[in-house]
Design goal:
The complex is a heterodimer of chains A (about 250) and B (about 425). Chain A is built from nine helices and four strands; from the N terminus they run E-H-H-E-H-H-H-H-H-H-E-E-H. By secondary structure, chain A is mostly helical. Chain A is rod-shaped, with a radius of gyration of 23 Å. Chain B is an alpha/beta fold. In chain B, about 35% of the residues lie in helices and about 30% in strands. Chain B contains eleven helices and 16 strands. Chain B starts with 5 loop residues before the first strand and ends in a 19-residue tail after the last helix. The mean pLDDT of chain B is about 95. At the A-B interface, helix 1 and helix 6 of A face helix 3, helix 4, strand 10, strand 11 and strand 13 of B.
Chain lengths: ~250, ~425
C-alpha cells in the first residue's frame, strides 16, 4: 500500500477527482512530477487530503488551510491525520474491577445524560504506515456523520488519565513542532464538539470539573458522591457500601 | 509460498449511483507462526470455578479440579496464575502468584478441600478472578480470566448486558475473558456474550468428562499466542457505513472503526464478514476503504484496500459476483440465524423461529442462482426452520448454538482455533 493514484485518493478520501486536481493546482497538496492517470501519490498526500477535509468541515478558509498545511512535514501530517488521539480508557483494569466490586456502577449512576461509553480504545498499536498519534489532548471530538453506522459514538476523551494502563511504547519523534499544529486541530475539534457530553470522570484525576454521582444502596437509599474522589475517599466509599450491604443482609 | 497476513475479497465491484447499495467483503487474517527464536509471551491467568451445588453431579467439580491441575502444571515458573471458586460467596483459593512448583502444589492442595455448595454469584467470581489478573497486569503478557460454570448468574450482578459490558471494559483495559459452559443449565447467551465482548472464546462442554480436554485446549492456546490484542482497522470516507457480521467487538472512533480480534495463536486464521453501506454518488466515481491489521507486539502487520465504483442500475445488475464471497456471506447469515433461533425455541416461539429462518433462506435464494453451495444453504435453512419450530431438548440447543458460534469465529467444530494448515478456504 502507501501509494495511490488520483482516483484511489478520491476513493479513499471521498473527495471528487476534480477537487483533488484543484487542490493540486492551488498547491494545497504537493504535485509528484508529471501529472497523469498513472501518477502515484504517497500516503502523506492522502493524509493531507483527510486533514483538508476536516479543516474544511470546521469552516476554515482555504488560504488558512494552505498556510497551515504547507508548514507541516509529511511525518507530521501522517501523525495528525492518522489515528486521532483516542482516549485511553479511564483507569486501569484493577481500578475498574474494584469500582464494580465496590458496588458503584459508573455508567448506571452518573447524573450525566446517558451518553454512550467514551470511545474506548485498546492500547495504541503500531500499524503501518501511520505511527501512533502525537499526545494531543483534544478536548472533544464529534464523530464523522455517517462513517461508523447508526450508533454514532460521542467520543469525548478524558483529558488526563493519570493511571492509564501501560500504553504501547510511545512512538518515535514527537517533535517540538507538533504542539503548534496540534493546537490548530484542537481548535477545530473544540468548535465541533462544543455540545458533546463530558465523560464520567476518572477518579484519580484532579483538577477536573467535578460532578455528583448517585450510588444506589437500596431502591430508596442512595449515597451521593462528588467525583473525582481521592483514593482514600474512594476506599471509604467502598467500605461504606460493603458495610451497607452487610447491614441489609442482616435485616430480618 | 507465504500466506499474506491480510487478504480481502469483495462480492461485487460496482455500486449504485442513485440507490443506496450494500456490499460485502471477506477479510482473512493469518497470525504469524510461533518461531523457535521467539519466546512466547508470559501468561497471567485466573481460573474461576463454579463450586455451587449443581457442580457436584457426575463429579463435575473433581474433573474441573483435574483440568486445573493439568493446566497449572503446564505453566512456566515465570507465568502467573490464580484460582477463584464461587457459589454465592466468592473465595480466592489461590491468590495470584508466579507458577513456581510450590505455588502449584499449594493451589492444588487448597482446591482439594473445596467441594460444591450454594447459589451462584457468577459475576462476582469472575470479577475476583479479573482482579487477581489485574493486580499483576503485565503489558507484555497474555492476561486472561477463564470462567467455568454449569449454572446461571443468579446472585450479585445478574443482568447479562451489564456483565457483558464489564467484560468489554476489562478487555479494553488489558484483561480478556474466555468462558466454558458445562451441561444444560448455564446461559449460553451470557457466556457467549462475555467471551465475545471479552476478546476470548466460549466453549460448550456437553459432558463433564470433556472438561479436562477443553480446558487443556484453551490453556494450550494461552501458551501459543503470537499476536496479542490483534485488531483490524477500517478507514473510509464520510458517508459509508460499516457493519461487522462476525461476532467481534467493533469500537467506532470518529475516523475509523477498529474490530478487536483477540489474541491470535500460531498460524491461526480468522475470517470476518464485513457489510458496507454506501451513499449515493456520481457514475464513474470510486469509493474505497483502507484496511490494516496490527497487534500489540508489532508482529501482525498488513494492509489492503477495497474499492467500489458507482455505476447505473443496468451495469450493477449484470456485474460479475465473487461466488466464494457469496457463499461465505450466506453461511454467516445462516449461522447467525440458527444461533438466534435457540432462544426462540426455548421460549416456544415457533412462528418467530420459522419466520426468521425462512426469511434468511429467502434472501439467500435471491442470489443463489444455480450455485450448489448456496442452494444447499437455502435447503439447510428450510430444514432448520422445521427442526426448531417444535420442542427440542436443551442439549440440542446448546450444541447448535455452540457450533454456530464456533463457525462464526472461524473455529473448528471442537472449538479449537483453525490454523493455516487446516484452512480450507472453500469450507
Amino acid at each position: 500500500m502507501s501509494e495511490h493514484t488520483i482516483s484511489q485518493l478520491s476513493a479513499l478520501s471521498g473527495l471528487p477527482v476534480r477537487t483533488i486536481r484543484y487542490y493540486l493546482a492551488q498547491g494545497l497538496i504537493p504535485a509528484v512530477g508529471k501529472e497523469g492517470p498513472g501518477t502515484r501519490y504517497p500516503q502523506a498526500t492522502l493524509a493531507r487530503l483527510r486533514l483538508i477535509a476536516r479543516l474544511r468541515d470546521a469552516h476554515l478558509p482555504l488560504a488558512e488551510i494552505r498556510k497551515q498545511l504547507l508548514a507541516l512535514s509529511d511525518d507530521q501530517v501522517l501523525e495528525l491525520a492518522g489515528t486521532p488521539a483516542e482516549p485511553e480508557p479511564a483507569g486501569t483494569a484493577l481500578d475498574y474491577v474494584r469500582q464494580v466490586l465496590g458496588g458503584s456502577r459508573p455508567e448506571l449512576t452518573s447524573l450525566q445524560p446517558p451518553a454512550a461509553a467514551p470511545a474506548l480504545r485498546a492500547r495504541r498499536i503500531a500499524i503501518p504506515p501511520v505511527a501512533a498519534p502525537a499526545p494531543v489532548p483534544a478536548p472533544g471530538s464529534v464523530p464523522a456523520p455517517a462513517y461508523g453506522a447508526a450508533t454514532a459514538l460521542p467520543s469525548a476523551p478524558a483529558p488526563a488519565a493519570a493511571s492509564a494502563p501501560a500504553a504501547a511504547p510511545a512512538p518515535g519523534p514527537t517533535t517540538g513542532a507538533a504542539p503548534a499544529h496540534a493546537s490548530l486541530l484542537q481548535r477545530v475539534e473544540a468548535v465541533s464538539a462544543s455540545d458533546a457530553p463530558q465523560p464520567p470522570e476518572d477518579a484519580s484525576s484532579f483538577g477536573q470539573r467535578s460532578q455528583w454521582e448517585r450510588v444506589s444502596i437500596t431502591s430508596d437509599i442512595e449515597l451521593h458522591v462528588r467525583r473525582p474522589l481521592s483514593r482514600r475517599d474512594n476506599r471509604l466509599v467502598e467500605r461504606l457500601l460493603a458495610f451497607a450491604r452487610q447491614l441489609e443482609e442482616d435485616q430480618p | 509460498m507465504t500466506t499474506p497476513i491480510l487478504s480481502v475479497r469483495q462480492d461485487r465491484r460496482l455500486i449504485r449511483a442513485i440507490h443506496h447499495s450494500t456490499r460485502y467483503a471477506i477479510v482473512e487474517v493469518t497470525a504469524p507462526p510461533a518461531l523457535a527464536t521467539h519466546t512466547r509471551p508470559k501468561v497471567n491467568v485466573a481460573f474461576v470455578l463454579d463450586r455451587s451445588g449443581s457442580m457436584s453431579g457426575r463429579s463435575k467439580f473433581s474433573l474441573a479440579r483435574e483440568a486445573l491441575r493439568e493446566g497449572i502444571d503446564r505453566l512456566a515458573s515465570d507465568d502467573r496464575f490464580a484460582v477463584v471458586v464461587y457459589d454465592n460467596v466468592v473465595d480466592v483459593v489461590a491468590p495470584g502468584r508466579t507458577a513456581t512448583g510450590d505455588a502449584k502444589r499449594e493451589a492444588i492442595r487448597a482446591l482439594e478441600t473445596i467441594g460444591p455448595r450454594g447459589n451462584t454469584d457468577l459475576a462476582g467470581g469472575w470479577l475476583r478472578g479479573a482482579e487477581q489478573v489485574a493486580q499483576a497486569l503485565d503489558p507484555d503478557a497474555v492476561n486472561r480470566v477463564l470462567l467455568l460454570t454449569d449454572g446461571l448468574a443468579n446472585e450479585g450482578i445478574t443482568d447479562p448486558r451489564e456483565i457483558e459490558r464489564h467484560a468489554r471494559e476489562l478487555r479494553v483495559r488489558g484483561v480478556s475473558t474466555s468462558t466454558f459452559g458445562v451441561g444444560e443449565d448455564f446461559n449460553e447467551e451470557l457466556l457467549g456474550g462475555m467471551a465475545d465482548a471479552g476478546g476470548g472464546q466460549y466453549r460448550f462442554i456437553g459432558q463433564a468428562d470433556e472438561i479436562p480436554r477443553l480446558i487443556g485446549s484453551e490453556v494450550g492456546e494461552l501458551l501459543e499466542v503470537t499476536a496479542r490484542g490483534a485488531e483490524l482497522r477500517v478507514r473510509g470516507p464520510e458517508g459509508m457505513r460499516l457493519e461487522c457480521l462476525s461476532p467481534y467487538p467493533v469500537d467506532r472512533g470518529s475516523r475509523e472503526s477498529v474490530i478487536a480480534l483477540g489474541d491470535l495463536v500460531s498460524d491461526q486464521v480468522v475470517r470476518l464478514v464485513l457489510a458496507f453501506g454506501f451513499p449515493l454518488g456520481e457514475t464513474g466515481r470510486d469509493l474505497g476503504v483502507e484496511l490494516s491489521v496490527g497487534d500489540r507486539d508489532g508482529r501482525l502487520r498488513g494492509s489492503a484496500t477495497l474499492t467500489w465504483t458507482f455505476a447505473d442500475g443496468a451495469a450493477n445488475d449484470v456485474q460479475p459476483r465473487d461466488r466464494e464471497v457469496d457463499r461465505i456471506v450466506a453461511r454467516t447469515y445462516a449461522d447467525r440465524a440458527i444461533r438466534a433461533a435457540m432462544d426462540g425455541n426455548r421460549r416456544g416461539a415457533w412462528d418467530e423461529v420459522r419466520h426468521n429462518l425462512h426469511g434468511v433462506a429467502r434472501r439467500v435464494m435471491g442470489y443463489a442462482g444455480d450455485d450448489d453451495v448456496l442452494r444447499g444453504i437455502v435447503a439447510e435453512l428450510e430444514r432448520e426452520a422445521d427442526a426448531w419450530s417444535v420442542a427440542r431438548p436443551e442439549v440440542a440447543r446448546k450444541m447448535a448454538f455452540a457450533q454456530a458460534s464456533y463457525s462464526l469465529k472461524s473455529r473448528a467444530p471442537s472449538g479449537a482455533a483453525m490454523r493455516r494448515a487446516d484452512w480450507d478456504p472453500n469450507a
